[in-house]
Amino acid sequence: MRFRWPTFLGRAEKNPDPSDSPLSDLSDLDRRHLLYVLSAMAGGGALLPQSVLAQDASTLPTPKRALTGRDANGKSVFKSFDVTPKVVTIDANPGLTFYELYITEEVPQLTGIEPDPMLQGTRAFPGPGGTMFRLISYPPRRPEGWTPPPGTTFESGLRELSEKVPRMGDYFDRDAPGMHTSDTVDYGVVVRGEMTLELDDGQKVHLRQGDCVVQNGTRHRWRNPLPEPCLMAFISVGGKRAGKT
Q: Is 237 exposed, middle or buried (CB count within 10 Å of its CB: 0-12, 13-18, 19+)?
């Protein structure tokens, strides 16, 4: 029997035909010039098709992290300004990338001389009182007929996820691909692109660039509706689920 791959994000929704756009007859160069002018006139892109904005955004460079601290005299300094040392790519789901930015446990002491915690590795979610800051780049909507890399199964994909982001795969449902739950409050922001958030009852919210979401430990899944990547920022705060000891 041929394995039917359910991606971590679930199956994406259909997108309108881009040929219906009034920009479809322009060359790539002319389109970019027109978008630049319209973006300036619209105060940041309010008049532009969101799919076009997401496509341009997907060409931006890898995000950098500015990490601050203190020197021997107690003066604020930049300890680094570069790509985080912990970037995780998932081979089973090409395009799924975790930029692990920072993690704290309990109450930070704020000495300013703390070592970069990402040099020690990462984890799926913080424990009670801890925090996790990460960016996740979600792959584009898969075209019809897309298949995962040879030899990949849903279970092997989750195993890889747990190996590279310890225990992350354990949070995903086996009977509802993409659905997952964690004992955290998650603050999420769409940095570029678009994303659809689906909950238990099947209701969905379509998030555009700049939109935010607060996940209160609820079961959910993400679906990228566009043929371009989506970059989201998440801050997870560890909590305790009601009724658990």
A: middle
200/221 Cα distance (integer angstroms): 9
Domain membership of residue 31 (yes or no) is no
In a domain, 12, yes or no: no
SS3 of the chain: helix, strand, coil, percent, to 5: 20, 30, 55
From residue 16, give the alpha-carbon distance in Å to each of 21, 152, 230: 10, 30, 18
Asked whether residue 29 is domain-assigned, the answer is no
Domain membership of residue 207 (yes or no) is: yes
Domain coverage including residue 160: 65-238
Q: What is the residue-level pLDDT of the chain in tens, covering all 245 positions?
A: 343 444 444 444 445 554 555 545 555 545 544 544 444 444 444 444 444 444 444 456 899 999 999 999 999 999 999 999 999 999 999 999 999 999 999 899 899 999 999 999 999 999 999 999 999 999 999 999 999 999 999 999 999 999 999 999 999 999 999 999 999 999 999 999 999 999 998 999 999 999 999 999 999 999 999 999 999 999 999 999 987 65
Q: Can you tell me the distance from the alpha carbon of 55 to that of 65, in angstroms, rounded to the nearest whole number? A: 23
Domains in the chain: how many in total?
1
Bridge partner list, 222:
197
Residue type, position 85, single letter: P
116: CATH: 2.60.120.10
Cα–Cα nearest to 216, from 244, 239, 200: 239
Question: Checking DSSP bridges between strand 230-238 and strand 184-192, what pairing results, if any?
Answer: antiparallel
d(CA 173, CA 168): 11
Q: How far is CA 19 from CA 23, 139, 193, in A?
A: 8, 22, 19
